[in-house]
Structure to design on (415 residues):
């Protein structure tokens, strides 16, 4: 029965599970218990968050790290610290998580959407250049799936037009571009430590930068507008308490000890899997420019040309899952199609420009194709598996392709 699709009653390629996430052991427990017993649970009293900030910034060749409660407010704080004014424009990709664009709205600035490249899944530099107007102030390249965006192009465009570059590195812990850590290349980098991320404390985020003034501003905004050496109840700027707690700081310190080895494993597995899948007709793994030194593989992502499988993506995903391979199609539609953007449901933000904004007119054919028909995601925790685990993914894909006629017949029946 092994040569019948598991979906049709055959034996699945695998029944074992892939590595669990998060990974933790007694070293995490020891750090957490020590922080717990210290009684210093807030960052103002303890030393865990401060230690983590210093280590994470140093790992990025940055002088400053400001840990915050998540990777959405880190983006917003960075934009506020950059001095964005009401209704300035910020260029963001159409293919990313919601936060990249909503952080812009919450900074009372206008997200201007730009499509991604069909092969790298990262923002397309030529389209960035074309989207610049006299109101453009910043670009947020997202290192999608953990693959650094074309930072040479981003920096050149920024230089030409005097723009601020905020790297959304929420997927890119440990990734590097021309040997430079992702997040350290633009003016400022933003990371998330939410539970799915390659480095996690359940929730959390950090801003890294080498810019002294920017760091001071971010630190103030994340701490109720206080300033270094200022009086406790003296607040200088619109801000709030976005400080990360000590228990999360403790966990991040122990988790960080594993990141380098985990990144090496994910990257090597990603290369192997990409090579195997690229050999199959109709599969296009994320293409990797030579400038990408390390891919953190927050996701392993590919495009499926459904015609080569004779069945739509949903059928292929069902078949893979039945073979014991967890997978998904990722985002179902590009960000401008989100109800929030279609209806401009921005609450009190962007009140004066709302009438002239129309996100239903954004053209992003590549993101549309990836979202609605072609994108496939495998999670980062799968990439922590063995070479044999990667071969199971590729074997399952090969099996589904081999049985494409049976799959197509089933998909037709299901109509
Ligand atoms: C690309 C991207 N940016 C920002 C974020 C926001 O991070 P958080 O969930 O920590 O707010 C995420 C999280 O999922 C993300 O994927």
């Amino acid at each position: 029965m092994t040569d019948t699709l598991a979906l049709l009653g055959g034996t699945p390629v695998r029944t074992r599970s892939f590595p669990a996430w998060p990974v933790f052991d007694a070293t995490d427990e020891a750090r957490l218990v020590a922080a717990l017993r210290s009684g210093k649970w807030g960052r103002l009293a303890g030393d865990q968050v401060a230690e983590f900030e210093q280590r994470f910034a140093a790992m990025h060749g940055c002088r400053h790290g400001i840990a915050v409660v998540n990777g959405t407010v880190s983006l917003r704080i960075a934009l506020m610290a950059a001095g964005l004014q009401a209704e300035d424009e910020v260029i963001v990709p159409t293919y990313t998580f919601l936060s990249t664009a909503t952080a812009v709205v919450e900074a009372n600035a206008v997200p201007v959407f730009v499509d991604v490249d069909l092969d790298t899944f990262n923002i397309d530099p030529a389209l960035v250049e074309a989207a610049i107007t006299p109101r453009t102030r910043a670009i947020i390249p997202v290192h999608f799936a953990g693959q650094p965006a074309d930072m040479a192009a981003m920096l050149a465009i920024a230089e030409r037009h005097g723009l601020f570059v905020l790297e959304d590195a929420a997927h890119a812990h440990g990734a590097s571009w021309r040997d430079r850590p992702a997040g350290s290349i633009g003016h400022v980098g933003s990371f998330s430590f939410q539970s799915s991320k390659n480095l996690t404390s359940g929730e959390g985020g950090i801003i890294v930068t080498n810019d002294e003034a920017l760091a001071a501003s971010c630190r103030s905004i994340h701490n109720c507008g206080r300033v270094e050496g200022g009086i406790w109840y003296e607040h200088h700027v619109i801000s709030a308490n976005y400080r990360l707690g000590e228990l999360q700081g403790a966990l991040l310190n122990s988790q960080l000890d594993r990141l380098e080895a985990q990144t090496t494993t994910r990257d090597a597995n990603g290369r192997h899997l990409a090579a195997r899948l690229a050999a199959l007709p109709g599969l296009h793994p994320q293409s990797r420019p030579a400038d990408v030194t390390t891919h953190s593989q927050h996701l392993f992502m590919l495009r499926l040309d459904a015609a080569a499988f004779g069945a739509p993506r949903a059928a292929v995903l069902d078949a893979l899952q039945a073979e014991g391979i967890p997978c998904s199609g990722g985002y179902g539609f590009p960000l401008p199609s989100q109800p929030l953007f279609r209806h401009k449901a921005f609450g009190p933000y962007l009140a004066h420009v709302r009438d002239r904004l129309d996100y239903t007119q954004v053209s992003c054919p590549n993101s549309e194709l990836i979202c609605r028909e072609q994108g496939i995601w495998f999670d980062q925790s799968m990439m922590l598996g063995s070479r044999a685990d990667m071969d199971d993914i590729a074997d399952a894909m090969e099996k589904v392709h081999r049985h494409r006629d049976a799959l197509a017949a089933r998909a037709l029946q299901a109509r």
